[in-house]
Amino acid sequence: MPSPAIALALGLASFLASPALVLPRDERLAAALERASENRAALEAALARVPAEQRGSLAFLIAHMPARDLRSLSAERLLDEVAGAHDARDAAPWKERLPEAIFREHVLPYANVSEARDPWRAELRAIALPLIEGATTPLAAAQKLNEQLFAKLNVRYSTARKRADQSPKESMETGLASCTGLSILLVDACRSVGIPARLAGTANWVDKRGNHTWVEVWDGEWHFTGAAEQDPAGFDRGWFVGDAAKAQPGREHGIFAVRWERTGVIFPLAWARGADEVAAEEVTARYARASEPAASTSAELFVKVLDASGRRVKAAVELVPDAASGATTQRGEPRRERRHQRSPALRAFLRRARDAARGAGRRQRHGRRGERAR
Predict the structure, then answer these.
(1) Least C-beta-crowded within 10 Å: which of 170, 252, 264, 352?
(2) Burial classification of residue 324, based on how many CB atoms lie within 10 Å of its CB (0-12 exposed, 13-18 middle, 19 or more buried)
(3) Domains parsed from the chain with CATH numbers
(4) Tens digits of residue pLDDT in 286-319
């Protein structure tokens, strides 16, 4: 019988030689094992013991692990994480539509940024599964989670949270979390049931009022939502859309989305300036396009009718544009701060009508008090 060391070496050699195995680039896996230092034996043990169908996932996970995890996470923890991710994918209604690359990047990972590496997958899966009952797409399931998860766990946003980058365990214990902590909790809940999800955010808005973190969910393409800020109308909506449209490429004011694979791009951590272990891709341009407002074709118009003594009166008003303007006749009864939306052509007509009315000394005056694009 071979010694344990020889058996481990034989198992690892067989693993690496498997023709059906899809591995990350060999040099990345080898370099990761080298960086693991004294924990290398544990990682090699995990690689030797993992079921054949999960080997590629574990190899990918190890090849791109942050240095602190390479030196500390046990074989048992990694095997549990890989098995849990595979189980979640296999049970998901959308498993046939989930590309392997998306699964490995955004379901498999056990962490997002710099949070504590507390186990969460099994606990969150038990909580999340009943909440997504009936959902058949990643977006529908994620929407259900965002609507119900935080109330069920009694976790809310608060600047009194202990840390910006809390793990799900820390947020659930205190009931308080930052936007980053809420986003980590939602992403991990999504991953626990096979929904591909990741963190996105900026280290500092262009107006320099601070950072913000939110969640992206993959369903054929990436869609965004605020954690605990779900919109009943679905994804790609939020209070930060206008701010995101103004983002500027670059580490300080750009928008980044977290990756697991080492890309050479770093996710900027507002709470840990200079940290370089969280991989990312910059998505600033996508948010600028998605958030770009359509050209304005309306404006606010305030109409005030006065009698001969200058007192305001209520009276029917009809605005009739000239034929060349292309605008339609507008009718209504003015009252305090009544607002009407008008096309550019009608606005031009009203300006001409106003000037003519003033010249003729008419009692009715059309005062344009303000204009705001919608």
Answers:
(1) 264
(2) exposed
(3) 1-91 (no CATH), 98-293 (3.10.620), 300-365 (no CATH)
(4) 998 765 544 444 455 656 777 777 777 777 777 6
In terms of Cα–Cα distance, which of 218, 205, 217 is closest to 245?
A: 205
CB 172 within 8 A of CB 153: yes
Percent of the chain at pLDDT exceeding 70: 75
Asked if 165 and 271 touch (Cβ cutoff 8 Å), the reply is yes
Chain centroid to CA 310 = 55
Percent of the chain with pLDDT over 90: 69
Q: pTM score, two decimals?
A: 0.73
Question: Roughly what angle, to the nearest 10 degrees, separates helices 40-49 and 55-63?
Answer: 160
pLDDT (tens digit, 9 = 90+) per residue, 66-84?
999 999 999 999 999 999 9
In the numeric block, the tokens 């690496």 are attached to 16
| Exposure class string for 13-32: b at 16+ Cβ within 10 A, else e | eebbeeeeeebbeeebbeeb
Would you put residue 262 in left (φ > 0), alpha (ψ -120 to 50) or beta?
beta
